[in-house]
Every structure is written in C-alpha cells, then in structure tokens.
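Continuing the batch. This is chain 6 of the set; chains 1 through 5 are on the previous pages. Same settings as before, nothing changed between runs. Recording input and output for traceability.
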Amino acid sequence: MAKDQYLLILTTFPDIEAARQIGTLLIELQIAACVNLLPASQSIYRWKGKIENKTEVPVLIKTTNNNYSAVESRIREVHPDQVPEIIAMPITHGSPDYLAWISESTFD
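Output for chain 6:
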C-alpha cells in the first residue's frame, strides 16, 4: 500500500459564515482532516480589467492528494465567485503522528 501524499489547500470565502459552511461540509464528508478559518484579510487583485479590493476569509484545508478532486468540487459548488481561489501545495514534511492523523481522518 502506497504512503498517502498530503496537501494543504488554500481558498478564500467572502465571509466567516460561508467559510464555516464549507469547512464543516468538508469535515462531515471526511474529505479533509482539518480546516482552519483565518481572520479576515484584504485582497487586492485585477479582475476583468479592474482593480478590486475586498475583504475575504482565508481557509486552510489539510487533506490527502486522493481527496483533492472532491474538495475542489465541493468548494466550486458553494463558492460565490466565478473563479474561486483554490491552490493546493504538497506537504513534503511534517510530524509523522500528524500526517498519520490526516490519513485516519479522511476517507480515501
């Protein structure tokens, strides 16, 4: 059996309620082990030729590579943005106990 590959997924939501909704859903479905909702931050970006400035809640999701597609799908289903930020970064190192817990907490 191959060792799990772990991911840290970053996304943002427009408010804490929406962030809590997706976080809870991902945990209930067992496709994420942990979801951190960070304090609101200001995002400045260009969209359709205009500079935008809005408040967003950053969300950090710990999961396995096998669950990435399901996590991305669920975010897209509930996210209000036309092109939501969904960035996955591999976790190359970590506490063996914590990484094992991610595997045990998710459904592959």
